[in-house]
């Protein structure tokens, strides 16, 4: 029995490897992420590699995505944990550095933050770090490898697209070889890698988005987060969109593209997300992304209707 079908014994409704099932199998309990803000900036904002950041990024304007960087980690952790427990009473935690580029600091600073984070609570079972592929010097990877022997470490790497023209258009400021190399260097040290991609980037066709997944299949990655492009107020892309709006993907388009990406995706890869979260009051479009459950339900329905599973189109 392949991994997908085996995992679906836990949740027969899904035709792909869900994160919930993965964590249930790994830790034997519900696990949720507690997003911590270590006060990092980003090399694509502060001029280390470029200025201005990715054109869709709201980090410059608001820092939407995590705890308050002015509060100590322990306070951030307690606030978010308490809020999450309203939904899940009994769970383990992942200490998650999410906002901006969470390895963009001297190693000594990283050590202080990460060592504090993993000891905030005895029920923390994993450290997860979101970063860019060009912000992983060897000394940081060596330290993460050592940390990984004490507690599982997961690195989330932003890719967004394999297509250089799109990457230039959105000012990613790194190329595909940089990403591939970062994956290889992390995997040499046995660190789990989760890749972020975005569907609906300007100028991209369905075939281009599927090609991004096909490329990911060639790499030793363990997880993927698939996002719809959110166009947010006070971002470079948002300003351009307000001046001269262009056609965004419809919900039907997104469901169709994402379903096919799942069918192409290697069967062992865990799907962490099929759509993203964006602060509703700052979202310019697409408005349908506010209904996250509708999006995932439509993808689930589509896979069931097709009677196909993750990886059914995958070829080596
Ligand atoms: S790399 Fe991440 S934090 Fe930096 S500008 Fe791009 S999206 Fe924003």
Describe this structure in words.
The chain has 316 residues and is α/β, with parallel strands linked by helices. It has one domain: TIM Barrel, CATH 3.20.20. Helix content is 37%, strand content 16%. It contains eleven helices and nine strands. It has helices at 3-7, 19-27, 73-85, 107-118, 138-148, 164-169, 176-188, 206-217, 236-243, 251-264, 292-306; strands at 31-36, 92-97, 124-131, 153-160, 192-199, 223-228, 231-232, 270-273, 283-285. The strands form two sheets. It has a seven-stranded parallel β-sheet, with helices on both faces. A two-stranded antiparallel sheet has the order 7-9. The model is unreliable at 6-11 and 61-65 (pLDDT under 50). Bound molecules: iron/sulfur cluster (SF4). Residues 42, 44-45, 53-54, 57, 59, 100-101, 132, 158 line the site of iron/sulfur cluster.
Entry summary:
Helix content is 37%, strand content 16%. The protein is an alpha/beta fold. Bound molecules: iron/sulfur cluster.
Examine the coordinates and then state which fold CATH places here, giving the name of the CATH topology.
Answer: TIM Barrel
Count of distinct strands: 9
User: Domains counted in the coordinates: how many?
Assistant: 1
- Span from first to last CA? 19 Å
CATH class equals: Alpha Beta
Helix count, DSSP H or I runs of 4 or more residues: 11
Bound ligands, each once = iron/sulfur cluster
What is the helix/strand order?
HHEHEHEHEHHEHEEHHEEH
Task: Kindly estimate the percentage of residues that lie in beta strands according to DSSP.
Answer: 15-25%
Mean pLDDT, to the nearest integer, reads 93
- Biggest sheet: strands, sense, closure? 7 strands, parallel
Helix/sheet category = alpha/beta
CATH superfamily: Aldolase class I
The CATH architecture category equals Alpha-Beta Barrel
Q: What is Rg?
A: 19 Å
- The geometry reads as globular
Please give the share of residues in helix.
25-40%
- Residue stretches low in confidence (pLDDT < 50, at least 5 long) are 6-11, 61-65
Spatial sequence of strands, sheet with the most strands:
1-2-3-4-5-6-8
């Amino acid at each position: 029995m392949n991994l997908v079908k085996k995992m679906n014994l836990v949740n027969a409704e899904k035709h792909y490897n869900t994160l919930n099932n993965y964590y249930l199998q790994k830790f034997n309990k519900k696990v949720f992420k507690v997003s911590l803000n270590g006060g990092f900036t980003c090399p694509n904002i502060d001029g280390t590699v470029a200025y201005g950041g990715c054109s869709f990024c709201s980090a410059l304007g608001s820092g939407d995505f995590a705890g308050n960087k002015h509060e100590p980690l322990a306070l951030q952790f307690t606030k978010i944990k308490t809020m999450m427990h309203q939904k899940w009473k009994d769970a383990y935690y992942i200490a998650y550095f999410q906002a901006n580029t969470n390895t963009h600091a001297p190693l000594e600073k990283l050590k202080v933050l990460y060592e504090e984070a993993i000891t905030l609570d005895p029920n923390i079972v994993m450290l997860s770090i979101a970063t860019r592929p060009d912000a992983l010097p060897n000394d940081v990877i060596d330290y993460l490898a050592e940390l990984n022997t004490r507690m599982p470490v997961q690195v989330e790497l932003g890719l967004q697209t394999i297509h250089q023209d799109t990457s230039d258009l959105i000012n990613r400021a790194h190329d595909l070889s940089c990403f591939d190399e970062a994956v290889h260097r992390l995997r040499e040290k046995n660190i789990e890698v989760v890749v972020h991609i975005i569907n609906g980037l300007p100028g991209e066709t369905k075939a281009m988005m599927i090609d991004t997944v096909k490329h990911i299949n060639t790499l030793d990655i363990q997880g993927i987060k698939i996002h719809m492009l959110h166009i947010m107020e006070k971002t470079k892309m948002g300003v351009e969109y307000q001046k001269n709006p262009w056609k965004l993907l419809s919900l039907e388009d997104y469901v169709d593209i994402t379903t096919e990406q799942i069918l192409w995706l290697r069967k062992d890869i865990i799907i962490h997300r099929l759509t993203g979260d964006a602060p509703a009051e700052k979202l310019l479009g697409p408005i349908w992304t506010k209904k996250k459950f509708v999006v995932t339900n439509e993808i689930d329905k589509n896979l069931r209707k097709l009677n196909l599973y993750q990886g059914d189109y995958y070829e080596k």
